[in-house]
């Protein structure tokens, strides 16, 4: 009796706790808001925007205030040569420096940063799909465990009704004591299964909270996940192929920057202020100066060709990965669609079998009231019903998992 009381106490307690509900959409929203990876990628995009602004700022005139002084004394004829050190100098200059860069070169540098931001944005979308897939998969798993728990509760309620009737019939010598004990063993077994299914749901639900980033150990009932097959986008607009396109643009941009690195470089500068060695009329040493610098690569050992070759090899590698991924992508989509179709066919057959097992239980239950059914046949009918019902649950969960995997690629 203590065992039975504990069973029903746990069932009642769990039923009360499961009164609250949570949806898949809510878990996905919380997971996105809690994900440190998605936050990191958003921050990296923001950092790239700052790099772009910094690049543009660096091309504006750079103004610096520079000052320096030197005193090299000569004592009794000993000291640095005055012709070299000027003995004592001081300068305080305001300098302006301006790099001259072509618009195409500037556009190439800005584009490199923009492509990096686009790549991070696309990586964020893929990471979001990964997160959505993982959370949805665990939600489905936990929901399947919940359905098993509820089904085991229903079976125990059904068996308890039959147990009361069988007890009465046994007292009236319609059934033997051994028949009643055999049925009671089946009931006890199912009660243990109920405890096991409750523990399984609790573990799966806790794992769901862990993946989502929710610090909660309570057990709440999950609502039925609404998961339908989404329309597969065109390959060219898929986030998984978009990354290959961005990589190609990055390589083209890298080639442009190699070309620009071999263009002439011009820099103009000017300064103004005070610069004196105090050897003459120091108060007149205020002035200005201006100039320019020019450089152009002539020969560097054919490093330019080497860089071109390196970029060509990277492009070849990119094409190989893209071609291989394209085959895997199409094969994965076709395989998942085939498995979903096979699951639908299996569910149709299971539903038909389920009707027969339910009808058999109803007939055996009626025969039990008159004592015209063998206990072995009744237990076998319940066992078949449990098997078919569990098979339907696992097949339904398997179908939802397959749809989740298919939807992962549909963005």
Condensed summary:
By secondary structure, the protein is of the alpha+beta class.
Identify the notable features of this structure and list them briefly.
411 residues, alpha+beta, Outer membrane efflux proteins (OEP), two-stranded parallel ribbon, elongated, disordered N terminus
Overview of the molecule:
With 411 residues, the protein is of the alpha+beta class. The chain has a single domain (2-59, 101-262, 297-408), classed as Outer membrane efflux proteins (OEP). Helices cover 69% and strands 12% of the residues. The protein has 9 helices and 6 strands. It has helices spanning 2-17, 24-34, 36-58, 82-85, 103-171, 177-212, 239-261, 303-370, 375-408; strands spanning 21-22, 62-71, 88-100, 221-222, 265-276, 286-295. It has a 4-stranded antiparallel beta sheet with strand order 2-3-5-6, with no helix packed on it. A two-stranded parallel ribbon has the order 1-4. Helix 8 packs antiparallel against helix 9. The two termini are 56 Å apart. The model is unreliable at 1-20 (pLDDT under 50).
């Amino acid at each position: 009796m203590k065992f039975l009381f504990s069973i029903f106490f746990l069932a009642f307690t769990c039923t009360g706790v499961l009164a609250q509900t949570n949806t898949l959409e809510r878990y996905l929203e919380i997971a996105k808001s809690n994900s440190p990876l998605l936050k990191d990628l958003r921050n990296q995009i923001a950092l790239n925007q700052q790099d772009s602004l910094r690049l543009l700022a660096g091309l504006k005139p750079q103004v610096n205030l520079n000052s320096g002084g030197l005193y090299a004394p000569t004592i009794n004829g000993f000291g640095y040569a005055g012709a070299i050190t000027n003995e004592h100098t001081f300068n305080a200059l305001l300098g302006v420096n301006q790099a001259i860069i072509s618009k195409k070169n500037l556009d190439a540098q800005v584009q490199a940063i923009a492509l990096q931001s686009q790549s991070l944005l696309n990586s964020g979308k893929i990471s979001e799909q990964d997160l959505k897939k993982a959370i949805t998969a665990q939600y489905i798993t936990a929901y399947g465990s919940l359905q098993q728990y509820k089904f085991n509760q229903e079976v125990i309620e059904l068996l308890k009704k039959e147990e009361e009737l069988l007890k009465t019939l046994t007292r009236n010598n319609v059934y033997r004591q051994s028949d009643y004990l055999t049925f009671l063993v089946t009931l006890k077994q199912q009660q243990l299964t109920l405890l096991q299914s409750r523990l399984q749901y609790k573990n799966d639900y806790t794992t769901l909270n862990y993946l989502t980033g929710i610090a909660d150990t309570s057990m709440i009932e999950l609502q039925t996940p609404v998961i339908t097959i989404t329309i597969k986008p065109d390959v060219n607009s898929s986030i998984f192929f978009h990354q290959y396109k961005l990589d190609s643009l990055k390589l083209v941009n890298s080639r442009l920057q190699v070309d620009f690195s071999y263009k002439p470089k011009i820099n103009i500068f000017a300064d103004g202020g005070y610069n004196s060695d105090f050897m003459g009329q120091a108060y007149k040493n205020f002035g200005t100066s201006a100039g320019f610098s020019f450089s152009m690569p002539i020969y560097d050992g054919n490093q330019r060709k080497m860089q071109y070759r390196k970029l060509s090899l990277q492009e070849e590698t990119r094409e190989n990965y893209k071609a291989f991924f394209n085959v895997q992508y199409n094969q994965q989509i076709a395989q998942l669609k085939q498995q979903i179709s096979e699951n639908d066919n299996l569910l149709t057959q299971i539903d038909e079998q389920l009707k027969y097992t339910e009808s058999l239980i109803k007939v055996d239950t009626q025969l039990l009231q008159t004592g015209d059914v063998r206990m072995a046949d009744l237990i076998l009918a319940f066992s078949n019903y449990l098997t078919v019902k569990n098979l339907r649950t696992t097949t339904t969960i398997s179908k939802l998992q397959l749809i989740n995997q298919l939807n992962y690629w549909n963005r």
